[in-house]
Write a structure and sequence with these properties.
Growth Hormone, Chain: A, single chain, about 80% helix, globular, mainly alpha, two-stranded antiparallel ribbon, disordered N terminus
């Protein structure tokens, strides 16, 4: 099939980019709600009397266990039901749960609300990646998914900036009295301010059209015809046949994610403890770096991958993740050791730029190697692995190293250095190993699609 004909089967580019914009806004809000906790470590520890290890659990396992457990069934639903409805309901749920964090009075209540945030956010990415794959052909898909992935860094950056601004505005007043709620502290006010606006974003999903599912047949046949829904067993069998690719790619990205979440959660605390920066200043500076450098990095990764794909390099998405991992090492290993906060902030710019590059192209790689009826489930498996390892363990490992190994709260930077060195060096090995197996998986998809088309033609009525 020619490229022109292949692209004609997809919806108009204008509407495709509108859908990406809506999904990106949703992703921005999900990361604001997910990351805001990291700026509030000090105030929450003061009021709820929790330790670094408990904060690591709140930032990691309390959220990620339910995020990952619900992700796989949500992926199954996204392969069979309305993806826009799934996302809309999820946005409303996690927004309400984030706002409810502002109602908590103890550690256990906050854990329960963070679990609810995880359940809601589990609905988004499997369905969103599947939608984008049906709006864009393969040679433009990496850029589209990278634009969507900008939400990670815009959302995280805004969480720090807005959180810092609210904290600065509330610095002169310890408590507030709100109608129907009563007395709250300033950190509780932050949860209300970032959670409730998400309900408006849920309504935006009503403007998104559910596209025809594509990619169920071979490249040589009509890929937009209805295809049978893949069972869970069929999906797992397909994953098992491509287990080397799933193992190396998912573990590699999981280790990159581990360091990313460790940094996002503990870098603000590092600036506060080591350099005595105020939370408002940390939020503005670190938030701006995350939003700008992260956004530029994730889009650059997608553009580079699409450029390579258009020139015939089939493994472009995986290759970009591997090269970005190597490029991260110099600045990533230097910033925790910087003697001043200003130097650390400058070194964080290239660190976050290269660290963000894999997060658009890695899911694009998963989408490209899977049949349409298995894409959301494969994405859910990918998200299960990277979040259980990355989000679940990243913040927690830094806390354990700081409290149990160094036994010094001012050694957060040493813990971050160890986590960064081990995770990125290991990730570089796994991602390098995944290059060859990924090319084999693309060949496997072509053979599988051709065999499915033959079977479909044999059973089709004459």
């Amino acid at each position: 099939m020619s490229n022109v004909h292949e692209q004609d089967e997809y919806p108009p580019a204008g509407h495709g980019w509108y859908v990406v914009a809506v999904l990106t806004v949703a992703y921005i809000f999900s990361f604001i709600d997910r990351q805001i906790l990291s700026l509030l470590v000090g105030p929450i520890q003061r009021d709820l009397k929790v330790t670094d290890t408990q904060m690591g659990l709140l930032g990691g396992l309390a959220f990620v266990v339910f995020y990952t457990l619900f992700g796989i069934p949500m992926g199954r639903l996204a392969d069979t039901k309305s993806r826009r409805a799934i996302i809309g309901i999820g946005i409303a749920l996690w927004s309400l749960m984030t706002a409810a964090c502002g109602l908590t009075r103890n550690f256990f209540q906050l854990v329960l609300m963070r679990m609810g945030v995880g359940v809601g956010e589990a609905t988004l990415s499997p369905a969103a990646y599947s939608l984008i794959a049906d709006y864009f052909p393969p040679n433009r898909r990496s850029t589209a998914m990278s634009v969507y992935s900008m939400g990670i860094y815009i959302g995280s950056g805004l969480a720090f900036v807005l959180g810092g601004m609210i904290i600065q505005l509330a610095a002169n007043q310890e408590g507030y009295v709100l109608p129907l709620i009563g007395s709250v502290r300033s950190w509780q006010l932050v949860f209300f301010a970032v959670g409730l606006p998400g309900l408006l974003v849920a309504l935006l999903l009503l403007t998104v059209k559910e596209p025809t599912r594509k990619g169920g047949a071979s490249r040589g046949g009509p890929s937009n015809l209805p295809v049978p829904v893949a069972t869970v067993g069929e999906t797992w069998a397909y994953v098992r046949d491509n287990r080397a690719t799933f193992l190396f790619l998912n573990l590699g990205i999981a280790l990159v994610t581990l360091n990313s979440y460790a940094n996002s959660f503990w870098v603000p605390t590092m600036f506060a403890r080591r350099f005595a920066w105020g939370l408002g200043n940390i939020g503005m500076v670190y938030g701006a770096i995350v939003a700008i450098a992260g956004t530029c990095g994730v889009v650059a990764g997608g553009r580079l991958a699409d450029w390579w794909i258009q020139r015939g390099r089939a493994d472009a998405n995986v290759r970009v993740t591997w090269l970005a991992c190597l490029a991260w090492l110099p600045s990533g290993l230097l910033y925790p050791l910087a003697p001043t906060g200003q130097i650390a902030a400058l070194l964080l710019i290239p660190t976050i730029f290269f660290g963000s590059m894999p997060f658009g192209v890695a899911p694009a790689a998963i989408q490209r190697m899977m049949p349409n009826t298995m894409r959301a489930q494969a994405t859910a498996i990918y998200l299960f692995v990277i979040n259980l390892i990355g989000n679940g363990l990243g913040p927690y490992i830094v806390a354990i190293l700081t409290e149990q190994v160094f036994q010094d709260k001012n050694s957060v930077h040493r813990s971050l250095w160890i986590v960064g060195a081990v995770s990125y060096l290991s990730a570089a090995v796994f991602l390098g190993l995944s290059l060859k197996s990924y090319r084999r998986s693309l060949d496997y998809l072509q053979r599988w699609s051709q065999s499915q088309e033959i079977i479909t033609n044999q059973i089709a009525p004459q």
